[in-house]
Design brief:
SH3 type barrels, seven-stranded mixed beta sheet, 5 helices, binds biotin, BirA Bifunctional Protein, domain 2
């Protein structure tokens, strides 16, 4: 994969911009758009993504993962989230991946990932990987639940573009793993990096609260929990929340 970077002073959303640019003129895989400020940054579940202008890394990466069958699409998400934790581990310890793909430091969220796929039959035609990584923001005023930045963790200001370059290199290695038998290692490493994979924690699904431990994650991304009473339960994204 060859990375090409385009920098924008501001844009609505790098995911939206990259989608439109690729529709206008077919771009090569590895095209990256990053910006200092998003006017309408988008998050998962229709949420907005807030980031103080100039302080954090907000970017989108174009991929054409035609080798990944649609029913194994979660593999890409695993490669992306592991690449983010690979980079963060260079700066501090205590990072994990909160299923499906939030990046946490202790009990706080440091990065969010929004992957938007276009399928063609049973394979991926195109995937836009959007990442917001809090780097130098000193205070969070929004009502977003427990955000944290690399500055708050390390006490230092960091070079935002350098973090982007480190991500690209880390992702190159992780993406390669999706092409080979290392895909299984990737799935296993994802599990060992998961937030709260070390015991019983409370979850909520359809108003019901229960204690469970994480038993695994299926290739399509479903979370498998084993409840206190030994029952195995399977959840799609949005069907269960961590308490
Ligand atoms: C989430 O945790 O809800 C996902 C947040 C994803 C935010 C990034 S910032 C760059 C890219 N452009 C967007 O509009 N969203 C993603």
């Amino acid at each position: 994969i060859i990375f090409t970077k385009e920098h924008l002073a501001e844009t609505d959303s790098t995911n939206t911009y990259l989608q439109q640019l690729d529709a206008d003129r077919h771009l090569p895989e590895g095209y990256i758009v990053y910006t200092d400020a998003q006017r309408a940054g988008r998050g998962q579940r229709g949420n907005s993504w807030e980031s103080q202008p100039g302080k954090n890394l907000t970017f989108s990466l174009l991929l054409r993962p035609e080798h990944i069958p649609a029913n194994q699409q979660f593999l890409l998400s695993q490669a992306v989230s592991l690449a983010v934790t690979d980079v963060l581990n260079r700066y501090a310890s205590g990072f994990s991946i909160k299923w499906p793909n939030d990046i946490y430091w202790e009990d706080k969220k440091i990065a969010g990932i929004l992957i938007e796929n276009v399928l063609s039959g049973s394979t991926f035609a195109r995937s836009i990987v959007g990442i917001g990584l809090n780097i130098n923001q000193e205070r969070f005023i929004s009502d977003a639940p427990n955000p944290v930045s690399l500055f708050q963790i390390t006490g230092h200001i960091h070079d935002i573009e350098a973090v982007l370059d480190q991500f690209a290199e880390a992702f190159r290695t992780r993406y390669l793993q999706t092409f080979t038998t290392s895909a299984q290692n990737l799935r296993e490493e994802y599990l060992t990096t998961l937030y709260r994979n070390d015991g019983l924690y409370p979850y909520c699904s359809e108003g019901e609260t229960f204690y469970a431990l994480i038993a695994g994650v299926e290739p399509d991304g479903h979370l498998i929990l084993t409840t206190e009473s030994g029952q195995e339960r399977r959840f799609a994204f949005k069907e269960v929340s961590f308490l």
